[in-house]
Amino acid sequence: MPARAHRSDAVANRERIVAAARAALADSNGAAGELSLHLVAKAAGVGQGTLYRHFPSREHLLAEVYRQEMGELAGAVPPLLAEYPPLDALTRWLDRLIEYARVKRGVMAAIEASAWQDLYAGHHGRLDEALTTLLDRGKAAGELRADVDATDVILLLGALSRVPEAEWDARARTLVAVIVDGLRRR
Amino acid sequence: MPARAHRSDAVANRERIVAAARAALADSNGAAGELSLHLVAKAAGVGQGTLYRHFPSREHLLAEVYRQEMGELAGAVPPLLAEYPPLDALTRWLDRLIEYARVKRGVMAAIEASAWQDLYAGHHGRLDEALTTLLDRGKAAGELRADVDATDVILLLGALSRVPEAEWDARARTLVAVIVDGLRRR
DNA sequence: ACCTGAACACCGTTCAAGT
DNA sequence: ACCTGAACACCGTTCAAGT
Question: What is the 3-state secondary structure (H, E, C) of A144-175?
Fold first, then answer.
């Protein structure tokens, strides 16, 4: 279905709101609870009512912010699968995730948020889809256990979002190693 | 060091505040963000200032609530270790955790909170201590990998706290199975 | 159609006044 | 020492009035 036509000022406002929210989250180290919608509206140069017209709840706004973070990650999967065997592709993709999240804290917040299935399940099917492909290939090759799905992996990866920044380098790799080993077929 | 003497009304107030907070959390399905301190004070029959005297921040109050949830879980470890080999003891303890959390949602919130090391690290050494014992025994027996600590396990178990209630039975066991397999020595 | 911003209800936090 | 509750600043949300 084709996107409906929108007034150009509405489109511009929407973009400025999301940009302001991303900037605010980047400043506050990505803690979603500290996002003041009043301040986002002010920073975007719109009234509060406008913010609410576009995003009827804080979660709707965060969902859009996170959807933008997620694109690059999901897009990295197909080339990896083309070049490496499934388990290698998964390991390399997770290495990339660690490296990406090390500098950009919001990425982990996005992954954690994608676990609240209620609102987000539909929104970024992209990550879910990419992970499902990875897992299916691994299962078909007999390298991964058959009883896990993309949601399980996303839930487990959520552990990374609670690693304090100071311990990131020491702990992130260990956690991912445990998860990957746990996903292996025995 | 012996506990300082407190006025009996202060002790009683503190207990009633914690009890009111636990009751409020039990009602709201354990979502810590929805705990209104105004309402907790009112339910406990104290002024807001009294709540703040005892718990200088929402987190301090939650820490006490969670500390109480944690006791039983940690206490179950020594008997299990006395009766079973390390890996069996770990598996059985996690089974108990799943069963316990199935009916009492606050338990998972408590475990998740214990990952914010800043405030909680000292407070419930009990869970940390119990898990460290379990892991050390397993490492000594050559059954568990040597590069994980109790914090890693707590972080991974945090995945359970984001499993929607409707999916609990189907997903909790799988997640724990993946975690246990990941902790095994290869 | 869409936008604005005052207004409302609520929350965390403080503090002068009490006992 | 400890407690109370009014008060303050702030936040999410709504809505009448504008363009």
Answer: ECCCCCHHHHHHHHHHHHHCCHHHHHHHHHHH
> How many percent of chain B have pLDDT more than 90?
55
Mark yes or no for CB contact A162/B118 under 8 Å.
Answer: no
Mean pLDDT confidence for B134-153: 96
Backbone angles phi, psi at B184, to 5 degrees: -65, 150
Length of chain B: 186
Over residues B106-121, the pLDDT tens digits come to 777 777 766 555 545 5
pLDDT tens across B56-79, in order? 988 889 888 888 888 888 899 999
How many Å apart are B49 CA and C18 C1'? 13
Q: Does residue B58 belong to the interface with chain A, where contact is any CB pair within 8 Å?
A: no
User: Which is higher by pLDDT, B91 or B102?
Assistant: B91
C-beta separation of A145 from A186 below 8 A: yes
| Whether residue B124 has pLDDT greater than 60 | no
Q: Residue type at A112? A: E
CB count in 10 Å sphere of residue B1: 3
**Chain A positions in Cβ-Cβ contact with residue B184 (cut-off 8 Å):** 181
Q: Please state, in angstroms and rounded to a whole number, the distance separating the CA atoms of residues B145 and B130.
A: 17
CB contact under 8 A, A181 and B181: yes
- Residue in B117, B118, B152 nearest the CB of A178: B152
Residue A157 amino acid letter:
L
Q: Is the pLDDT of residue A132 over 50?
A: yes
Query: Phi/psi of residue A164, each to 5°?
Result: -60, 145
Q: Which residues pair with B144 in a beta bridge?
A: B184
User: What average pLDDT does the segment A94-114 reach?
Assistant: 80
CB-CB under 8 Å, B175 with A115:
no
pLDDT value at residue B119? 47
